[in-house]
Design a protein that fits this description.
This protein is an alpha/beta fold. The chain has one domain: Tetrapyrrole methylase, N-terminal domain (Cobalt-precorrin-4 Transmethylase, domain 1, 3-Layer(aba) Sandwich). It is 37% helix and 16% strand. It has a five-stranded parallel β-sheet with strand order 3-2-4-1-5, sandwiched between helices. Helix 2 links the parallel strand 2 (29-32) and strand 3 (52-55).
Length: 131
Amino acid sequence: MTLILAATPLGNPGDASARLKSAIESASIIAAEDSRRFHRLCADIETTFTGRVLSFFEGNEEDRTRELLAELKSGATVLVVSDAGMPTISDPGFRLMRDAIADGVDVSYPGAKCGNNGDCFIWSTNRSLFI
């Protein structure tokens, strides 16, 4: 049971890391902020996925978090991707990450992201301040 929070390219799909591609290919469930954009990203980076894709956005984050936690506890590997950038930073994923850590789920974050992983946790709140 692993929760993967993966950063996606902010602009050029060519900036996608090999680790992001590997995470997409290996996840059993992919929680995407916008499934259409996720499908487009996979086409652009020529990556095939076999995991089940679920929508995961602000409007369904609370319910979907409970569902994804149950899947994680059953042994699933869940990948969370936002439209662009790192999940949890002004995007869905904070609640899932917080609850997964509290439940002892392994959390990883491959690919380009914050300056260091600690920054992601510091900035992961229900509110964001951009300076």
